[in-house]
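Task card 7
Instruction: Convert sequence to structure tokens.
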Amino acid sequence: MNSPDSPVRFSCGSIMKNGFMLAPLTNRQSFENGQLSDEEYHWLTMRAEGQFGLVMTCASHVQEIGKGFSGQLGIFNDDHIEGHQRLSTKIKSYGSLAVIQLHHAGMRSPSDVIHQTPVCPSANEETGARALSLEEVIQLKDDFISAAIRAKKSGYDGVEVHGAHGYILTQFISSEVNKRTDRYGGSLENRTRLLFEIVNGIRVACGPNFLLGVRLSPEKVGMDIAEVQSICRQLVDEGNTDFLDISLWDCFKLPEDPQYQHLSLLEHFTSLDFKHVKLTVAGKISNAKEVQQILDAGVDFVTIGRSAILHHDFPVKVIENPEFEPIQIPVSKAYLRKEGLSDTFITYMKRWPDFVQEDS
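Output:
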């Protein structure tokens, strides 16, 4: 039986001391120029202190135009390196792996945040995004790879390429969004070309010992489960990926698409042969029993979001108590401050129903 305190050994050589990864959570705590703030530093390093085996940053944009939200941590120029060095050094001091998530919001970049028209694989009427030229697509690939090189210089153990949640790489993969007629549009091979060029380019640029993961989501924004399974198989077969992070929104539900409801959403992915590649999933894994249930299903390690906000030391609590249940929500602002959230992050958390007590 896979235990939550068992180490996870990746093919690149990195070792994660237990089966808990901090989800890459939007928190809006850094500076508008992408520089790391003390608030974001505190939030993330407190999770390393709380014994998450892998601490992942929020989505960090690789181009200025790819910014997805106010207060986003950036990795798009060398001015960011000093802050990232400080962060990665502290995370690793607690024995955790330090990983940065590489991101570009594409058509989901708010124009009032980026002060220009957002970009997309093809013109998008709903969001007002313009189409990227072929030259710009190649630049985007290069900027993802440059951000990974910057992350390595910053002392991170690795990177995760964000190909989920309707952001730019999802937009390329999606037949609903991507209407290009060149080599980056049309067939699944063409729609995934950018993702594979980025992943393979990072492996070449950063070497065999750099931890490399990819986040995918199998539903919404035109994602098709069979296509996402095919992408997973190709990532496994090409041999440049150490882990796949499948964001399910809810690990315990059936797929939304009736044609796939013969299996749970989770089972569509645990049924694949991941060979040397490790699998993690995210989505409503909230207590100790659910952690064990997911590990027993054949997942290598769990990705924790909400319970990591509520308990910076969630891994310790679960390892010590197989019956552990997180504190009931809503919780007070004072409680969240004690757990390392700034007032900015707490305000953002008010978007989650019944999470923050109104009168606290």
